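JOB MANIFEST
job_type = single_chain_structure
chain_count = 1
residues = 320
[input]
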Amino acid sequence: MTVDQAVRPETITAPRERRPTRKRLKTLSTTDKVVLGMMVGIPTLIEACLIWLPSLASIGLSFGRWDGIGSPTNITSAGISNYTYIFTNYPSFWPAVLHNLIWLVFLAVIATPLGVLLAVLLDRKIRFTRIYQSIFFLPVMLSLALIGIIWQLIYSSDNGLIDSLLGIAGKPQSIDFFGDKSINLWAALVAQTWRHAGYVMILYLAGLKGVDLSLKEAAALDGATAWQTFTRIVFPVMKPINTVVIVITIIEALRSFDLVYIINGGTNGLELLSALVVRNLQGEGQDLGVGSAIATVLLVLSLVPIIIYLSRTFRKDRTE
């Protein structure tokens, strides 16, 4: 018998392929589950107790009538009469809505672009850029109440900085920026811009640091100007930052209570919805039902545009 006959091909068994072994997933231990539950549950519980439950209670109270005296069992049903009152018979409501809209447009058209401009300028690695960033960011660390006090010192008609520089402080021709109903809203918006622009600047500075330099270099090689590079390349890349800034701008425009309350209590041309809420929740003529109805309107005005914008943004991201 020859070697070829002894070793036939059919008698040779091919080596078995070794299947890759799957790594077994580690299951969470009891301790891990407890820690994870606490990390998720405690913040959720705090948010529910401090935000969502009071919001739901406020919405429910907006359909009732209560002066805040006695137990909640004294609340009587009012139907939609509170909303009918604020929409038709409450003289300060519609001026407050108008002022809030003006506040939103001013922040969106003036304050936010100013913050973007500061971010672009400071991103060019100019000298003392860290010092400039600290100066512009300083107002962000201050509360709106403290900013109101600072700008009262600047705007005061008796010894304010502006009137003193003009040489009219304490004189009959002095300018009362916060007392004059025709200009106090714009004076307050300037004070708000001082803070909001610094906030937007820091957000866009963080976004600009994350932009790939090769995109800018490619645009420069193609002959794009600095304006074209920013508007067509850099700005669209920072889409997440743009979303955050839009949401923050809407929230800031609707919650600017501290500033106007420090200036004049939210009256005489500075009526805002947030100030009307507080006015109806405290003092002698308090009506918690009316205050809750205004708060509910403010909540809707805050959430609806944000939800619409975010839903459209995420829908476009999914389609792309």
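[summary]
Strands lie at 64-65, 76-77.
Residues 96 and 272 are 4 Å apart (CA to CA).
exit_status = 0
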